[in-house]
Design brief:
- By secondary structure, the chain is of the alpha/beta class.
- The chain has one domain (6-246): Rossmann fold.
- It is 25% helix and 25% strand.
- Strands 1, 2, 5, 6, 7, 8, 9, 10, 11, 12 and 13 form an 11-stranded mixed beta sheet that branches. It has a two-stranded antiparallel ribbon with strand order 3-4.
- The radius of gyration is 17 Å and the shape is globular.
């Protein structure tokens, strides 16, 4: 089986940045993974996992997140770079901007967010859901590509598939949330339980309810295509320039997690 220390989780289409790619599907205790593409970015072996299929036919609350993360674990992945398309809550955010969140609020309702849902009891520290070291590399690459980058932000993840009400957005804003999306949970929590570094780059493709004018579906599609081009550049630069993983704190989270 091919191995890779770095993985990308993103919308189908970004796998084109890999060279010499092969495809595989991995069986896990939670079901089969999507088709994973493994190839090179520079000299590094990288695995690309599409969060949802090419047609985006799987709603966010139905994605098999545990199978996805476990499959990458089997491949030997140590670092995950994720991408996400979100809606802006922070009034200073504009459509087309990029955000590298540092924290997250989980408001999902029915998703299994752990590999440890049976004995023994494992409670992983959630103080830093996104790897600080990986965030630094991602931020450095993003600033060279995008003019508008929010370097710290709180991501609120909702269950979906519906969008938020006006009252919900007002509540999220009062809670200090900057962006809202539906696919941000439980990936960072699952990665953390396996000692995998995880960080995400978010593209603002629309504004949340009540935050100025929302874009039409056609306009959102255009913004998304432009964002995909920049995301390829950001991911490629991040992967090429980041060194091998050192003594990251993400490796140690399980040491004190068993009750």
């Amino acid at each position: 089986m091919e191995k890779a220390k770095v993985a990308i989780i993103a919308r189908a289409g970004l796998e084109t940045l890999l060279e010499g790619a092969i495809q595989t599907r991995i069986g896990t205790p939670y079901g089969p993974s999507p088709i994973i593409t493994i190839g090179k970015v520079g000299r590094k072996d990288v695995a690309f996992l599409p969060r949802q299929d090419e047609g985006q036919d799987t709603p966010p609350h139905k994605v098999n997140y545990r199978a996805n993360i476990w499959a990458l674990h089997i491949l030997g992945v140590e670092r995950i770079l994720a991408t996400d398309f979100v809606r802006g809550i922070n009034p200073h955010l504009a459509v087309g901007g990029f955000v590298v969140p540092h924290d997250i609020i989980d408001l999902t309702k029915h998703r299994i967010t752990t590999f440890y849902d049976e004995a023994p009891v494992i409670q992983v520290d959630g103080a830093n859901p996104y790897c600080p070291d990986l965030r630094k590399f991602l931020l450095s690459a993003t600033r060279k590509v995008a003019k508008k980058v929010l370097s710290e932000a709180v991501y609120v993840c909702t269950e979906g598939p519906r969008y938020e009400t006006l009252a919900e957005i007002r509540m999220y804003h009062k809670l200090g949330c900057d962006i809202v999306g539906m696919t941000g949970v439980p990936e960072p929590f699952l990665a953390r339980e396996l000692g995998i570094c995880y960080a995400t780059i978010c593209s603002v493709i629309n504004l949340a309810a009540g935050r100025r004018r929302r874009l039409s579906a056609e306009e959102v599609s255009r913004v998304t295509m432009k964002a995909m081009e920049k995301l390829q550049q950001i991911l490629k630069s991040t992967i090429q320039k980041m060194p091998e993983r050192g003594r990251c704190h993400c490796l140690k989270v399980l040491a004190t997690a068993r009750i």
